[in-house]
UniProtKB/TrEMBL annotation:
Pfam families: EIN3_DNA-bd. The keyword Nucleus applies. GO terms for molecular function: DNA binding; DNA-binding transcription factor activity. This is Ethylene insensitive 3-like DNA-binding domain-containing protein. Keywords: Ethylene signaling pathway, Nucleus. It comes from Lactuca saligna. The lineage of its organism: Eukaryota, Viridiplantae, Streptophyta, Embryophyta, Tracheophyta. Residues 40-119 form the Ethylene insensitive 3-like DNA-binding domain.
């Protein structure tokens, strides 16, 4: 059972990397330095950072809600536009049928090209 080794760091048995050798590029060197600080000052700093983090998360949540509302409003307006287009098309077809009956026309060729250039 001595031959069984557990790989806790996920780097394999021959890893030369230790916990102190790992550096994060996004953490400033002054943030992880070994400066002397009182426990009370550190707690105060941690409390302020928790408040800042809470505010940032609240802002992100509000921005996400606003983006979702904006997307929903856009979808609603697109649906209304499609509905109006459908009603207009139905009206045109109605008059075309009437013209076919009254004027004995054999048919019509027409198309509607919306703003985006793609037919419905």
């Amino acid at each position: 059972m001595d031959d069984l080794m557990i790989d806790t760091n996920g780097l394999g048995d021959n890893s030369d990397i230790e916990g102190d050798d790992i550096r994060c590029d996004n953490i400033a060197e002054k943030d992880v330095s070994d400066e002397e600080i009182d426990a009370e000052d550190l707690e105060r700093r941690m409390w302020k950072d928790r408040i800042k983090l809470k505010r940032i998360k609240e802002k992100q949540k509000i921005l996400a809600q606003q983006a979702a509302e904006k997307q929903k409003a856009k979808q609603t307006s697109d649906q209304a536009r499609r509905k109006k287009m459908s009603r207009a098309q139905d009206g045109i077809l109605k008059y075309m049928l009437k013209l076919m009956e009254v004027c004995k026309a054999r048919g019509f060729v027409y198309g509607i090209v919306p703003e985006k250039g793609k037919p419905p």
